[in-house]
Amino acid sequence: MRWRRLWNTLREARRHPQLWLFLLAYFLYIDGVHTIIKMAVDFGAAINLPPSDLVLAILVTNYLGFPATLAFGFAGRRFGPQRCIYVALAVYCAVTLFASMASQAWHFYLLAAMIGLAQGGVQSLSRSLFARLAPPEKVTEMFGFYNMFGRFAAVLGPVLIGYASLALGSQRLGVLAILALLVAGFVVLTRVREAS
Length: 196
Hints:
This protein has a single domain (2-189), classed as Growth Hormone, Chain: A, CATH 1.20.1250. It is built from 9 helices and no strands. It has helices at residues 2-13, 17-46, 51-79, 81-99, 105-133, 139-151, 156-168, 171-174, 178-189. Helix 4 (81-99) runs antiparallel to helix 9 (178-189).
């Protein structure tokens, strides 16, 4: 019974190519986003930050995250979620570039603040855009695929960082490999069109 429902949902989803295009974009950019979030503490330790600075940076991210998510929600209603996702991804690209040069505690705090500003926005707006693309009568079932793509995120990013760090001889420069995921996701997202 479950397999039949899964097959029926897959068959229904195949009729909506924009949905699949968005899922591809989402998989790429959310992999980059989750990699940044999951590896932030390791990165801070790699530039010899004491544990107290790492904890404070996490607090900065969380305290900024809530109001920033509300602001992104308001902007998403005003300008559309897709445009606002572009802004959040641009912030993450800036984070990645700046991280490759970071070497001091205040650099890490600034990175934490930037992540806090974009993190909740990119996640909530992605859900909002997906809900707009999914057929209304099947939106709950379709969110199963959306959640699956999100759960597999942060797989490519660490691998890319590992290879780039070995090739470049620096973990800080290796972080630049995340740009490949963010930019690829951004480019694919530009091809997604909402039904008018």
